[in-house]
Amino acid sequence: MNAPNKSGWKPQMNNALEVAEASGEIVTTTGNRALMLEEPLIFEFGHAETTGVDLPEIDASAPNRMGGFDRAEPIGLVGLTEPETVRHYTRLSRQNYGIDLGFFPLGSCTMKHNPRLNEKMARLPGFADIHPLAPQNSVQGALEVIYQLADWLKTLTGMPSVAMSPKAGAHGELCGILAIRAAHTAAGNPREVVLVPESAHGTNPATAAFAGYKVEDIPATAEGRVDVEALKARLGPDVAAVMITNPNTCGLFEKDFRTIADAVHEVGGYVYCDGANFNAIVGRVRPGDLGVDAMHINLHKTFSTPHGGGGPGSGPVVFSDALAPFAPLPFVRQYEDGAYEIVEEEAREVTRGQTFGRMTAFHGQMGMFTRALTYMLSHGADGLKQVAEDAVLNANYILRSLEDILHAPFADSGPCMHEALFGDKDFGGGLSTLDLAKGLIDEGYHPMTVYFPLVVHGAMLVEPTETESKASIDQFITAFRHVTERALAGDEALKQAPYFAPRRRLDETAAARKPKLAWEDPEA
Amino acid sequence: MRYLPLTDTDREDMLERIGASSIDDLFVDVPEVARLDGPIRDLPMHAGEMAVERHMKGLAAKNLAAENTPFFLGAGAYRHHIPASVDTVISRGEFLTAYTPYQPEIAQGTLQMLFEFQTQVARLYGCAVANASLYDGSTACWEAVAMATRVTKRKRAVLSGALHPHYAQVVKTMAQFTGDEIADSAPAIQPEADLAGLTARIDDETACVVVQYPDILGRPSDLTQIAEAAHEKGALLVVVNTEPVALGAMKSPGEMGADIVVGEGQALGVGLQFGGPYLGLFAVRNPKHVRQMPGRLCGETVDAEGKRGFVLTLSTREQHIRREKATSNICTNSGLCALAFTTHMTLLGEKGLRQLAAENHRLACVAADRLEKVPGVSLLNTSFFNEFTLMLDGKPAREIVRDLADRGVLGGVSLGRLYPGVEALDHALLVAITETTTEEDIETLASELEAILSLEPAQ
Predict the structure, then answer these.
(1) Residue of chain B whose Cα is closest to the Cα of A82
(2) Does the A389-510 domain belong in CATH 3.40.50.2000?
(3) How distant, in Å, are the alpha carbons of A11, A35, A178, B307 from that of A19?
(4) What is the ipTM metric for this complex?
(5) Mutation to test the A interface, candidates B89, B332, B372, B435, most A Cβ within 10 Å
(6) pTM for the whole thing?
């Protein structure tokens, strides 16, 4: 087959064709397998002179007022026409697994259905085509969206204040911890230590460390919850805050949360709650009733805004009265006449006092706000309660349908919340959690979260969400049991899985040893 | 409810399998004090698509969309035409509803797209390596300062006065907590940036100098000079770009000696969206700095059969592995916005981007010439790409912008809004022109501005 371009790219790289042929497989000349189509990089078949837009030719005699900084060298980009572009990305998309395609039980990530009404609303020109610095009298509806969403978030969490601008969950965590540090600093001493459970998301210790705190682990009990006595023993005037995920990453509700919060408050510390798992309790439990001082809410988890292959997210943070004055700018307020204003400036009579500053340009993830508000209005207070209940019901159903065959370390610790946690105990033949996960790929599933939380050996965290039907979950359980049986029996073939994905296992060690992070022309 | 597939019979069957008598049994670990007796009060109940749509459309209708009016706003967010196929691509469920590519065998679509994206950004910026995106330009700017302090092991950052004030505020906010020292100043209102003043502030303790190109007033400046001054003192040059289209016509920061180039990618493919989600771009000129970079990186490798494939790599820098020792706490990037950017960039290609840039500059020259002729208006810049600063006589530009909006013209960004309290900037108006601006729009702005300025005597 002729190479499609000067780089000599062929659909199958290296000697894959020869290897396949030698092993007696049926080999196609293109490397394609019917609907599974190989696709080169744009740099391997695009051209510098090709373009998919029709713009005026450049007039070399036109005035030039760029101050002599004209680009002299080519940029090194290639273009495709529109049909080539659409086909390129359509082919790439088919090498991806998404919620639209199937069950995606990625624990702690809440991969629920993303309603298309949200998408439609976010694309209304009145939301999509407005500038963040447009005069405020021309964007009252946008400010009202922010105000209404803020109101929903405060009511659902039972918290008096919310900062809307954080761009994602980790950015929200940072917002919360910075407010805590600002509050301590205003009281005369920022303190030194933040306590974080071993089972926490990696972002928790990274965030606390960024804010200048020493991070200390809180041990867990055998039942998978924070060891309250150990925590109380560690509390003192040097502790700025505790960061606790509730429901926690072992899938359990921290039943002593209120006791912990009271003890932390007693020594003058603050309680940060990682709200990543809010989906388990939304509409049913208000974190404000548990003594939380700050909590971020991942709109891309609980409130169904799409994950987009790794963002954009949105991470508003609700605050208690104690921390509210330290929240970042900007925020939206409403005047008595009904008009809205976005308050961007520190030095004004309306500023809440001791804000720690600005975390991002402009006002936050507006495109996510419109989607989340659309979702909330669709569900309402009753629907959101049902969301939490169905999410928790589905997870318990999975837990109880697999615990006879798969090690479930906290199965006796009470009901799980919206995710079920398993470990790799008793796998045969040196097989691991990774092998089981890859086996699930061949069964047509996106695997659960693996090797997290760190407190369980070979952890598998399964979060079904509420948007799966019983039939879908039953089929998953059947597949999961089958692959688990193979793992327990030490089925060697699992070590090579997946067999049917667009790619077999990828060599991550080689990728890291000699990183190749951009395309280079082999002829250059 | 249309998003919830379980039926009541399913729920009963499932509770039975679990061994629970009611759903409340599954919430027994919630303390009494936090149990509610029904749906949360003070919120509406569920609603159908039509009712929700009506509510949201009502809110959207209260905003003046840029497409419906002569529009001249920029200052870090630009309105360009987005080809129709961009939305088709980003709406595909396999991209839209995917997660961060932790299972590379079934995420090659996202990964290959990111590899292509990284290559495009690196080339546009004149750099060796770009990451898979950050939240937005302002947070990327802070991450660049943080990285410079790691590389140089120094704690002082010098910010140009003509850096976008929101970016400067983000850097200062973060630095309060890391103990880094940030030296900044307000921009001086003059035709050219004050390079001598900036380079004079670089000393042996300086980790980096941060310069915007073109700057907040629309002025390009000679980065080579600043790079030399920075490197002489062992400091890095961080260059911020908020309008990637400019780099289709202008020298890249990398070729002028920038060490870290960051920016806002919104202008290509993403759309205005009232400020977010946007797209943080981050690249380094020296490949040796890769291991100090923040955020996700996509790299090429092979699979077990020898086929080329892509993975997230060098993750030992990241929070999920390194926890409190990570280079950044960032988890999510801006994947779907990166897809929109890279799709738009692929449609443009070298030729289209150059044409787009030329058309932006051509129209900006037309606008500058026309607006300068309005009595009471003068052009500050001697040079610009597609955005420039006008000095207005009479009342503060902030009020003039509101008056223009009342007349259905979104006439620009008043610097008074960006720099409250800096009196020298009260009469400055930042005007951005793109290929979406028509000559008729320019004429409308000129005549409305003239009408407003003539209503009151010049000061």
Answers:
(1) B347
(2) no
(3) 15, 22, 56, 11
(4) 0.97
(5) B332
(6) 0.96
